[in-house]
Amino acid sequence: MVPPRRLVQKLVLLLSCLSLSVAGVLANQTTANKTPGDDRAVIQRRRLVLIRSPKLSREFPHKKKAVVVYPVVSGLSPSILRRVRSLLEFKNIFDSSLKEYREDTWLEEFNYKVNHNGNYLLDITFSQSGSAAYPDDQSKHFLINLKNGNIVKAADAFLSDKFGPLSAMVDRKLKLELKEIIKSLQDAKSDPEEIRMAGEAQEPLEFKVENLDDFSIGARGVTFLYDAGYPHVIRALQPNGTYFFTYAELKPYIKRDGPLGQFIQ
Fold it and tell me: The pTM is what?
């Protein structure tokens, strides 16, 4: 006969094992029912080297190839995945397909950066660099709502009756940057002609309501993007065009039921 004390110890051990077993089953069921990363996309990095034709290689021996690094998106529901992949097709980024990149000698490098992937939002910036008469680089930004596969616009994220004050707030940062550019040229005792050209180029610049659609998001806040569109000859004088505001600063402007509402709750 097992002594009462040992019997109690065995019962306690048995119950502990049973509890662990049940907990493990429940955990497995929870994992099975939950889609991994269901608030984000799965992004795999792919690298492709474009080899140009022998004819182009002979004519432009320093441009025999171009390197393309691009994202392969998965991990979303079929309907959303189709929309996201369609948005991020090569032709929709810089108006060139892989075939066109291969048949032309301009491109040297194509790449991307994921700025944010979570909270049902995918924020990604593509960049390309190349040269023709002179070297050049370009970028294209996408902020995608992973709940519907659509590009997020200002009307989705911000209160429409606050567009005016919001754009004015961004414009103040733009104007401050423009003043700093002129001041840095003056402090460096730059050529007066260069200072004059910088001032003239700045005159038409203004961050308007229509510019609010292009913004990038992160864990801490929102960066509004602005392309001044300077010609290559004065590109060095162009403002950086990135204006950051915390979610706390933007709280009066953000739609609570919009994609950014989750950051101000």
Answer: 0.84
> Residues 181-201: what's their mean pLDDT?
95
Domain assignments of the chain as residue spans, ordered by start: 42-151, 155-263
Q: How many angstroms separate the Cα of 184 from the Cα of each of 106, 165, 177?
A: 34, 29, 10
The whole-number pLDDT of residue 18 equals 40
- Is 23's pLDDT higher than 70? no
CATH number belonging to the domain at 42-151, selected among 1.10.600, 3.30.565, 3.40.50, 2.60.40: 3.30.565
